[in-house]
Amino acid sequence: MKHTAALLGCAVLATALAACGSPSADDGAVVIRVQGMPPATDKPGLAQFKTMVSDFERQNPGIKVQGSTTAFDPLTFSAKLAGGRAEEVIKVPLTEPQGLIARKQVQPLTGELGKWAHYKEFNPQVLQPLSDGSGQVYGVPQAPFAQGLVYNRELFTKAGLDPDKPPATWEDVRAAAKRIAEKTGKAGFVHESKSNQGGWQLTMLTYTHGGEIEKDSGGKYVAAFNAEPTKKALTLLKEMRWSDDSMGSNQLNDQNDVIKRFAAGEIGMYMGTPGTYRLAKMTYGMENTDAFGIGPLPQAGGKATLTGGDVFLVPKSVSKEKAAAAVKWLLFAYAQPAYDPAAAAERAKQLAADPESAVGVPTLPMFDAAQQAKIDEAVKPHVNVKLEHFAPWLEGTPALTLKPEPPVQAQQVYAVLDTVVQAVLTDEDADVDALLAKAETDVNAKLAAAQR
Fold it and tell me: Where does the UniProt annotation place the signal sequence (predicted)?
């Protein structure tokens, strides 16, 4: 796929969401309860959603929509779903679908989705994490993203590196980081290490090395990271930190710390998405935004990157009649707005009215190259970022497999792996094998408790 940016794509959807309640179906209409409703404090979003519900019900007179403010809570979600108390449309992070599909707690929607005229134009990459082994699709994505390598083009130039050719492998990253540190005195590469984000980024590294964090063993998930891919990833970090001295002096960082330092020109590279451009510019005041560049996540045999976002699914317990109504809602509320170039253009125009905005920052395309090209063209007059600086990510990411976060207790797993990353980055004598062995025991205890 050549330069098929999802310039706003799902950003259109984000503003289309809010919710409201509908009256009971005394008139015989099908009533569906749908998650995705913002709280009352989000007045603009709520107003937009009420309009969306009204438009939907007018176009589908036999269906009534009741909005729900229920947000995903891993502590209560499973029990609510098992007890049949969940709404007809549920919204979950991308950590969840594969587990829900494996446990047969959600139902395939391929038949109903396939009735939409543009179904076959979905980007297969964004449907893959929502599909089973036979190709059945179970949901509709919202705002999907894929991790890449963010880099400072100005520091690349100062270090004698080509800012239009970001590192493609982790050995390339290591060499570039060392050169940046030597030539500029800045941290060549920084890896997050706290607030569960050290484990999160170690997951990305593991995927690029061909590994997994969790695996299915007899119907239950167990730790899978005490293996060569994660060991190689941690050894790479250890060598960059202690042998190359290319990661700077401050090793305890979360995403906000990293982006703030990057915005100030103190970091050469970090793992992130195109969307971190907005944080760098709008939250942390990055003055030289032309220095922002991003390429696909570098590889070491895995040909994969971590993806995320939210997903809308329909529980297995929902009747066929209500499931069909739910799919109509999902297509109307989430798929159609992302497909429509006019809607994307209108949203871009609204955003461009604010000089501090960042219009045109790419997201993972929801649809195929031909449709995305139409969206790009519609948005183009309002774009205020340099798309050529995002081109490496746009052109390289489609070749990678999109892998979701670990399906069970992801945040607790990340918390354990934070301690491993911190040890490697702060203790020159850290024993990678011993650290992973202990982490494996700790994580397996947490996973076993969660799957009783």
Answer: 1-25
